[in-house]
Amino acid sequence: MGITNWNVMVVEDEVDSMELVQGLLQHHGIHCFGATSGEEALQLLETERPTLIIIDLALPGIDGWGLLSHLKSNRTLSNIPRVALTAYHTAEVANQAIEKGFDAYFSKPLDATSFVRELQGIVGE
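Structure (tokenized):
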């Protein structure tokens, strides 16, 4: 499956960050849709099956860590690659993200030249 066949969910509560991530994906022909909270993401996942889920760690309500836990414990969702995204970058948070089950970790601001290329490696393109 080429990247133009992807359907990526972006879970981000900040409008500017949502627009930036979706803009980068759309620039490469990748279809994406957004959720502004963990709760909204779980609701959308009742009907949507994304290729990849990009999750901001600092969400209101169910945060990125809680959403990850829900995804890992659900058999139909547990195999979807999950990418952590945060503005609060530390090496410790990066290590925790991978150890707890994210497939990749990116800090804000994103590096536009490598972001999609790295996502291709995660999805297996």
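The two ends are 7 Å apart (CA to CA). The chain has a mean pLDDT of 95.
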